[in-house]
Amino acid sequence: MRKKGVHVKENINNFTFKISKETEVTMNSAKNLFQKFLETKPIFKRREALTISFTPQSIPHREKQINDLSRILAPTLKGGRPSNVFLYGRPGTGKTLISRFVGSELESISKNNGQNVKVLYVNCKMKRVADTEYRLMAYLSKLLGKDIPFTGLPTDQVYRIFFETLDENKQTVILIIDEIDALVEKTGDEILYNLTRINQDLKNSRVSLIGITNSLGFIENLDPRIRSSLSEEELIFPPYNGLQLQDILKERASMAFVPGVLEQGVIEKCAALAAQEHGDARRALDLLRVAGELAERNADKKVTIKHVDEAQEKIDIDRVLEIVKAQPRQSQAVLFTIIKLSERNKEIQTGEVYDEYQEICKKYGFKILTTRRVSDLIAELDLFGIINTKIISKGRYGRTRIISLGLSNSIIKKLKKLLYEIFI
Ligand SMILES: Nc1ncnc2c1ncn2[C@@H]1O[C@H](COP(=O)(O)OP(=O)(O)O)[C@@H](O)[C@H]1O
Ligand SMILES: [Mg+2]
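A: This is the predicted complex of the input protein with adenosine-5'-diphosphate.
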């Protein structure tokens, strides 16, 4: 080891010796280049405080939901089975945070109380966790301390192992199923039916379910038998307003930033923008974090309102690019067509799209879909918010759909570049 160290040192000396006049000049300018980064003070004290996974110290403006959920789960402490409960509200309204917070409080209080309570949390949007009934059962068993191979067994056997593990001890299990709509979408609703009936067969333990969803229509479309047992209780999470978002941001900002780096009005601006986006606290935190990152990247001394505007643009661009990247090739081809047409005309009629779409398919060697399928893809792009469509009446000529691209020029430029890269 020691020998190696000496060796390196010799090399360095050698290297220094050989530096030419020219290299010295570039090295000096590099020094200037980085100088401003050395001189500026850091922006962040603890950036993680603005990330999703961070658990805040206080949870303002959710007293009602916290109290209600605690009241619903409280029978656990007396050995009873709490009602199943359904939590719903738009994204970023604190559903995940509050269910996990109340769950962990319950676990620790019951421990002190000598009760055996386990809170299991599963997010059904997580890959490879809830893609199939098998995987979900295997995952839940693992949380209960029983390893099941991730493939290979018949599903009913996996179910039985889960059931037996559950019933091994006298215990109350609170099962939080987050993004429950994704589970039903992927596996159907039978699994929920089984879970809501599970207590009938358990001898020692009992299970209560907390279902969570952003999708307000989901519960209405559920099989009525599942629905009535899953939502013995319901808790609604309304959107935050601008002032509430300011309170949430202030606490996180005081942990995340070096004191004094936030210009007056930055928090208010992030809160106001997120309030417009259906009161989404995640959006508010993202705006503040990205604004800070942009300031840091620029070696600016303060985070300003201009950084917040840039952050908004950056987040929007990233979101659109993410969605488009995940689309099937045909849908990307339709979008490409619409972008091309919109360079000529702000408003596009559906009929025009199909002609140009065929040209693009020929050019890049894609299969040409029917008009019907293309129109479905257009409707999907609208649903994702990438394009806007509206139906207009043309009097006795019937009705037609008009398409426009509701995106800023800089996003369109980036999208075009992305699609070119994908197609070539
Ligand atoms: N009342 C609140 N106080 C502090 N942070 C909050 C509050 N509500 C939400 N957050 C934060 O906002 C983000 C989104 O909340 P989350 O619980 O994931 O929303 P949902 O599950 O409803 O989509 C998380 O980072 C969370 O910590
Ligand atoms: Mg959530």
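Confidence is low (pLDDT under 50) at residues 1-19. Residues 63-237 form a domain with the Rossmann fold fold (CATH 3.40.50.300).
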